[in-house]
Write a structure and sequence with these properties.
alpha/beta, Hypothetical Protein Aq_1857, Chain: A, three-stranded mixed β-sheet, 2 helices, 46% strand, globular
């Protein structure tokens, strides 16, 4: 899942950001999710940006997903490229999302990003939170 080699990327003000490179065994995107994220990155004017996937405490079941678009990875992040999209996950969140697939659904009542997480023991009825 993780390559032992450390990479660095220039951040603002000349500082270096150290991150690890992982692979799709950590997290992967479907084609639909990649297309949506690419469009969002383009619209925000950051075509080389990254999608951050994190897990935080909260929600009906105790844990919830947080997704955000950013310019670059942060220190200690794990960077995965999936379907041409750079996805970053912090080490703590990686414990919860390993093996997950991020999809994007378009429907009449149920549109948006969906995380298919094999580590989720239970999910709430709204699908926004889980327990592990």
């Amino acid at each position: 899942m993780l390559a032992s080699k450390r990479k660095s990327e220039s951040a603002t003000a000349g500082s270096e950001v150290n991150y690890r490179t992982g692979d799709e065994r950590l997290v992967k995107l479907t084609d639909a999710a990649a297309e949506k994220v690419s469009g969002l990155l383009q619209r925000q004017g950051r075509p080389q940006g990254v999608l951050r996937v994190a897990v935080t405490g909260g929600g009906c079941s105790g844990l919830q997903y947080k997704m955000d678009l950013q310019d670059t990875p942060a220190n200690r992040d794990i960077l995965v490229e999936s379907c041409g999209i750079r996805v970053v996950v912090d080490p703590k969140s990686a414990l919860y999302v390993t093996g997950s697939e991020l999809d994007y659904k378009t429907g009449f009542e149920d549109s948006g990003f969906k995380v298919n997480n094999p580590n989720a023991a239970t999910t709430c009825s709204c699908g926004e939170s889980f327990s592990a």
